[in-house]
Amino acid sequence: MSKLVGLIFISFVVLLSACSSSEATVSMSLSIEDAMNIRKKSNELPLLEKSINTMEAEVNALMAQEIDVPVPRDAGGGYTHERHKKNGAAIYQAATLYQVTGDEKYADFATDLLLKYAQLYPQLGPHPQHKHQAAGKLFWQILNDAVWLVYVIQGYDQLQAVLTEDQKSIIETNLLHPYVKYLSVDSSETFNKVHNHGTWAAAAVGMTGLVLGNQDYVDIALKGSDKSGNSGFLKQIDSLFSPDGYYTEGPYYQRYALMPFVVFARALDRVQPQWEIFKYRDGVLLKAIYACINLSYNNRFFPLNDAIKDKGLDTIELVHGVDIAYALTKDPGLLAIAENQNQVIVNGDGLLVAQGIAAKQKKDFIFKSILYRDGAAGDEGGVAVLRSNNAESALVVKAAGQGMGHGHFDRLGFLYYDHGTEVISDYGAARYLNVVTKRGGIYLPENKTWAKQSIAHNTLVVDERSHFNGKLAKASETSGQVTFFSGKLNALTASEKNAYPGVTFERTMGLIHTTLLDSPLLIDIMKINSSEKHQYDLPFYYNGQLTFISGKPEIAMNRMETLGEDNGYQHLWNKGQLSVDNSTTQLTWLNGNRFYSLNTLLPSDGEVIFAELGANDPEFNLRRENALVLRQADRSDAYFVSVIESHGEYNGVKEYTLQPTSNVASLSHQMEQDASLLFVNLVGGGRIVIAKADEVDASLQHTLSVSGKTYEWQGHLAVFEEATNESE
């Protein structure tokens, strides 16, 4: 019965397509006019010429081999997986090269590939290696099948003028229509999912509809299988982006999902401009492109949630995004990003970018301190990015929603970058993408047992349990809350009251610029309230080599034990402990050619634990990373008060070291009923005072007196500088 339904479906859509094919007269990706302009002008535009040459080299290398369209058998990273990826890209690339060079060998090659796939596809069932995700046919998960069609349909679009009617009939009847059916009907659960998998599927089906002149395909892509609008492309734009353009799964998946969003939107913009898709939701897709750029440091995306840390601004998805955004806005700041990407898409948008760069119209892209709200309505917390005046330093604080299934249990966690390096890091995902020997490239077991767990992040952990006990459904019900953000002060306060029953915690962080220090000072004040006593752990995952410890730790010399038994603790070796005595504890490490000092206040029963990742790791899946874990046990209410200073220089080539010790002499913290003062006392005198009120109302006045000196300020937070320590 299912085969009969499928044949009826295909017959219907072929007929519908034939009836409406005359409507598909506008190319959705590369117009004849743009192709001719590229052909005429590419030798005058170095970036465009380089992109064409790169494309030619890749296609020519594949053309030099015998065409191979193998029966699918391998998981991600295996031969058949990679071959189908290359073939799909080659159909798109060769068709593009035909348009811009006029060389018929490229059209012939792309046509031969399409015909071979039209011969293979009807023979295929679900992929033999499918695991946890819905099965594709060419690939082990249907997501990859959708990605393949996004590329291939663009190639088919550019070949239609040279294909015979018989060739078009074979390709559409045996490949394109059955492919659409498999994505949208046979795999309707994925197709209608509000998720990046659904986005790719909707884009693939919708773009196929635009090329074939099949409005039914376009409509189900935009509004879901039943055309109700409860799913589909428009619903995904509504649900997955905040009003600021932040994508709920985080920067890494924002980058990945960006391509189907913007490529399908640009196709709609060209073929059916009546949708005005780039104005939809106050232009949120353009905002998403800018957000994707700004959620990066030193060309790499902030690795929040399930993120692979190699991905950056030069990823192909963002090349599409930047070219499209520039074509629509003519923002010269985008040209700086495009020049850094060192490639353009070979179409009309890429032509405009290459022309702008050649005409020296670019301006620096300004990376800002900014708060990106999370949630469709912007009411589910957010991610704050705080940058130093010259953008040399960046502090990222996550107080957002869970991030769906790719989210980690890391409420109020942070990352810190300085002088081009990751200083306080986030692990990202435990995964080796497309590495066959690492379980085929899937997310590894340690992604659940380690990377998602709270102790893997720079955030509070209570009683060695992860936030929400590691339960996705519970975590997805609520979000962190950003209660204060100031770009002027470069600081924020965020709170979390649901991660642990009966425990609330609030974190105030900032990159504070003062005239007393050459570099901004990272402040970190964690306030915890509970009616019951708990153990509180606050880890700092530092990159570098420890060079100074203000005390004598007890180090495990010839035997180590794990820090705990579950919730990620089983993966940490306990390398030693440092007991503290209610005074400032200072730990300094060398990262590259720069020194960093963590200065922290802990009560007399607190301790610093030196930990290293790698325990209970039989397949060596985990990277070896180091942490300083601040611990306070048997307490109800508590504070963690710390500052991190960047200082000095180490030059191994010229053999000199400058200022390897911190400028911070000590910290003290004065707490009153509704406000507190953090004193950062500097070596040689002088101090920085951070005044913080419990209330965030900007109109309220506050006064605190300490040792005969009165501090007055308005609003939640204020910074005072004292050239000398006036209380001494």
Assigned CATH architecture of the largest domain: Distorted Sandwich
| Number of helical stretches of at least 4 residues | 18
Global geometry:
elongated
How many strands in all?
30
Distance between the termini: 89 Å
Oligomer status: single chain
Structural domain tally = 4
Q: Level of helix content? A: 25-40%
What does the main sheet amount to? 8 strands, antiparallel
The CATH class of the largest domain, by name, is Mainly Beta
* Averaged pLDDT: 94
Under CATH, the topology of the largest domain can be stated as: Beta-galactosidase, Chain A, domain 5
Care to describe what's here?
With 728 residues, this protein is of the alpha+beta class. It has 4 domains: 66-226, Alpha/alpha barrel (Glycosyltransferase); 241-367, Glycosyltransferase (Alpha/alpha barrel); 370-662, Beta-galactosidase, Chain A, domain 5 (Distorted Sandwich), CATH 2.70.98; 663-728. It has 18 helices and 30 strands. The strands form 7 sheets. Strands 9-10-11-12-22-19-18-14 form an 8-stranded antiparallel beta sheet, with no helix packed on it. Strands 8, 13, 15, 16, 17, 20 and 21 form a 7-stranded antiparallel beta sheet that branches. Helix 7 packs antiparallel against helix 9. InterPro entries: Alginate_lyase_dom, Chondroitin_lyas, Hepar_II_III_C. Its EC number is 4.2.2.26.
